[in-house]
């Protein structure tokens, strides 16, 4: 660090710590996706197809997430229905 | 039975071949009979790094297709005793490798060698999966940079799910992190991920840290594995990494910022 650097603002976080934060988030996200069972995408598609028989929804309107805690696994299904 | 070690990374250009050449040579220097296999079919480069490009007659695909025997194909290293190279094919593509073919070659090599180093191609597709499938241990080569760290994590996922050990429910592949192209100065300035940052994210044991060094390019220009450059920091760091791979305790070195003169520091140079 040279004398010129002392005049710069100190508030900005270092680019390395930004990199670490971004990596921690994306890597955690990709790991949970990896641990999902293989049947999940197909199951999601079939659930969408069933709902579509009754309501018009897009594939983005259904979110499926599988959360594993120590004791049990929770399958979370989130369907956004269109406005009437 | 030989121990099969894959050198892999996901991302290209991080130093897989440099590391395969250095570590293979280091293991052979310790008196273990070692072969380094170039799995990068179509883009052969290990021969250049090892300086034996003009001695390639047959290649890995020839052996798989039974067009040549292993003893006709293996290139004996001229510098290091007990070290051999199995070059990749340049004219074929990755589909020329089959699980059965690779298995047969590895089994035959296993009878004769103590260590088999598999230099993986970049990517996460067939070629890379073939290189890691039979591995007992993996050296994940990573640069302190976002895309390399992310790709390393993806390759760790593949090691844990698509390898033979994973598929057969055996003891998982031993994982080792090798951090290469490390700039202590830039880490000190907060411009580069530190060793502990990368360790935190990938959460696998650290095998070594190779500092960015002019010696690496110089060694590859000359076709010498950089571990033989015993005056260079990179060479010594690889020697330490091999010692750790063999179970020795070695403190990390070359991670401190080198002291600069007063004027240079004043000007922030």
UniProtKB/TrEMBL annotation, chain A:
InterPro entries to which the protein is assigned, alphabetical: MinE, MinE_sf
Pfam families: MinE
Entry GO MF terms: identical protein binding
DNA repair found in the keyword field: no
Record has Cell cycle as a keyword: yes
Domain of life the protein comes from: Bacteria
Keywords: Cell cycle, Cell division
Biological processes per GO annotation: cell division; regulation of division septum assembly
Family: Belongs to the MinE family.
Function: Prevents the cell division inhibition by proteins MinC and MinD at internal division sites while permitting inhibition at polar sites. This ensures cell division at the proper site by restricting the formation of a division septum at the midpoint of the long axis of the cell.
Protein name: Cell division topological specificity factor
Organism: Marinomonas aquiplantarum
Gene: minE
TrEMBL record, chain B:
Pfam families according to UniProt: AAA_31
A single GO molecular function term of this UniProt record: ATP hydrolysis activity
Residue ranges occupied by any AAA domain in the UniProt entry: 2-157
BP GO annotations: division septum assembly; negative regulation of cell division
Residues annotated as binding ATP: 11-18
Oligomeric and partner information: Interacts with MinC and FtsZ.
Protein name: Septum site-determining protein MinD
Species for this entry: Marinomonas aquiplantarum
